[in-house]
């Protein structure tokens, strides 16, 4: 793997990019205080670990301007966050539906047991044996 040379951007531009990303990633403030941070490698790493397609990752890796490279990586990360939120909401909706159905089933079973205990309802086996006994007579 060959790293393309980055266009030299001023340290102020890199710091401005880092500060602007602080709103999205609270932990980035801690990274900002580390000192000499390699922003081009951070952008490359972010693109590499993302679930973006190869073309999108390649666009990040080919970008020589560090600020643009960070912007592209940030877009990839934002897209992944949106997808993750959607997946989470779908999973939550499914879980709520399943929980509701399980609760309804449990309550129906409890209701059947109570009715059987009170003699208001008999189960199918009892009803068949009673019916069979009267049929034979």
From TrEMBL:
<protein>
    <submittedName>
        <fullName>Lon protease homolog, mitochondrial-like</fullName>
    </submittedName>
</protein>
<dbReference type="GO" id="GO:0005759">
    <property type="term" value="C:mitochondrial matrix"/>
</dbReference>
<dbReference type="GO" id="GO:0005524">
    <property type="term" value="F:ATP binding"/>
</dbReference>
<dbReference type="Pfam" id="PF02190">
    <property type="entry name" value="LON_substr_bdg"/>
</dbReference>
<feature type="domain" description="Lon N-terminal">
    <location>
        <begin position="1"/>
        <end position="81"/>
    </location>
</feature>
<dbReference type="InterPro" id="IPR027065">
    <property type="entry name" value="Lon_Prtase"/>
</dbReference>
<dbReference type="InterPro" id="IPR003111">
    <property type="entry name" value="Lon_prtase_N"/>
</dbReference>
<dbReference type="GO" id="GO:0007005">
    <property type="term" value="P:mitochondrion organization"/>
</dbReference>
<dbReference type="GO" id="GO:0006515">
    <property type="term" value="P:protein quality control for misfolded or incompletely synthesized proteins"/>
</dbReference>
<dbReference type="GO" id="GO:0003697">
    <property type="term" value="F:single-stranded DNA binding"/>
</dbReference>
<dbReference type="GO" id="GO:0051131">
    <property type="term" value="P:chaperone-mediated protein complex assembly"/>
</dbReference>
<dbReference type="GO" id="GO:0004252">
    <property type="term" value="F:serine-type endopeptidase activity"/>
</dbReference>
<dbReference type="GO" id="GO:0004176">
    <property type="term" value="F:ATP-dependent peptidase activity"/>
</dbReference>
């Amino acid at each position: 793997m060959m790293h393309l040379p980055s266009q030299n951007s001023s340290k102020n531009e890199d710091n401005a990019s880092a500060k602007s990303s602080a709103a999205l990633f609270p932990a980035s403030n801690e990274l900002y205080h580390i000192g000499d941070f390699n922003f081009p490698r951070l952008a490359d790493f972010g693109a590499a670990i993302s679930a973006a397609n190869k073309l999108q990752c390649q666009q990040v890796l080919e970008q020589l301007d560090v600020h643009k490279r960070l912007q592209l990586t940030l877009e990839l990360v934002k897209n992944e966050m949106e997808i993750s939120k959607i997946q989470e909401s779908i999973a939550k909706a499914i879980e709520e539906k399943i929980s509701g159905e399980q609760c309804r089933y449990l309550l129906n079973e409890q209701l059947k047991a109570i009715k059987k205990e009170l003699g208001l309802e008999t189960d199918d086996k009892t009803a068949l044996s009673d019916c069979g006994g009267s049929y034979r007579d």
